[in-house]
Amino acid sequence: MTNIIKKFFVKDNTKNEIDQVTRSTYVNIENKLNNPTFLNPNFTAYHQFVNGQAYIAKVSRGLPKRNKNDKIRVVFLFQEPSYWPSVKTLYDSLVQDERFQVYVVAIPILYPPALNKLELRDSTIQFLKDNNIEYIEGVTANGGAFDIYKLKPDYVFVQIHFDIQRQLEYKTNVMRLYTKVCLVPHAFLLSASDNKELYHQNDYFRVFAPNEYHAKTLAKVLHRDDNIEITGYPRFDLYKDKIEDSPMWKISKKQNQKIKRIIWSPHWWAYGHSKALADNVLGLWDYFYNMVKNNPDLELVIKPHPNLFNGLVGSGYITNDTQRKMFTDINSLPNASIYTGGNYIDLFKTADLIVNNSISFLVEWLPSEKPMIFFDTERKFELNEIANKILNVYYHANTVDSLNKTINELLDGQDSMLDERKSLIHELKLNSYDAAKNIKESLIKDVDMDY
Known about the structure:
By secondary structure, this protein is an alpha/beta fold. The protein folds into 3 domains: 2-59, no CATH class; 72-237 and 433-448, Rossmann fold (3-Layer(aba) Sandwich); 260-427, Glycogen Phosphorylase B (Rossmann fold), CATH 3.40.50. The protein contains 17 helices and 15 strands. A 7-stranded parallel sheet has the order 5-2-1-6-7-8-9, sandwiched between helices. A 6-stranded parallel sheet has the order 12-11-10-13-14-15. Strand 1 (72-78), helix 4 and strand 2 form a beta-alpha-beta unit. The longest helix is centred in the middle third of the chain and has 19 residues, at 275-293. The chain is globular.
């Protein structure tokens, strides 16, 4: 064992400085893990590991039992503005209810493609400020993680199920040691795959499923259904209030009654992209730029996937300077802008059509009743029956010429599939706006069961 320790843990120039206690600690960890390559010989990494084990030991003790009249303490972990619509109506409902104490903690995450640096981006904080959301920064003055254990939460909602992007204190299998971790899925299940990647959702106290198909699919993966509850999808609650206009557009309807509004939503596959996909995005960027530049009665909002420019720049397809120029060129036009925030449902409600290759937007756009042109580029998986039903009520293009032709026809009022979309909205029950109410009632019922 001594030779193993020397080889893997002790650098030659520091081994004489390690006291017997530390040496015993290495031996104990080595015996426990039975894997001499598990720990990094870098002492910073080692101490991070030891601190992590100490934190797990602390939170494993759990929290004091709440008193019956205590407020229900709910924490929302905030990591990306585009996921906020999944819980916005729930957050609003809980904040307005005096029975609840609500916290939002803005946490740093690892961004693809590299996943090698924790960042709490300025854009995340700015979104929270712009939307008057009170928050706690998830990074302390010394660079550590804010300890949500101190908040004594009854429930913690995560925005997305990918634990790989979150540090130890915010991982589901750690938080579940002392609180009830909940998930509102950030998207519908539209893949025809076996969805085995959902297996780690076993760690959640509750997954609030948007529909019966989601619940059954998840139950099949988890081999259980006691942590799954069908409540509807809170994003669709946002469609309840109709609006005619939004300040998210540069040109108001009052300024120009003839204005036609287009959203372009370029997607990005963080782990499966190619130069062809990058070239496709860049080619369409030029197309849309020239289209609105030469048509003052059109307005364009580009709603890129959160990882689009992380991928384009990080994979070397464009430089940071190129990205800045692309943004400057678009934003300098009087009838074009780029929106990277999370409150895009108001955009959906006030646009005339969307050009999209994002699978998740197939469902999210449908309650608007408006046409979508699905520009099929590099689909990474086969779609299930629900997704194909939705695709069948949208228009399709795979070249710039066919895209241009379809845009002109739709803006001219030639929308032959409107009735089919309305019928599918009814069939899929997307016009129900009670999801946030259902989730809140579920939390209250669960708390009451303890008394």
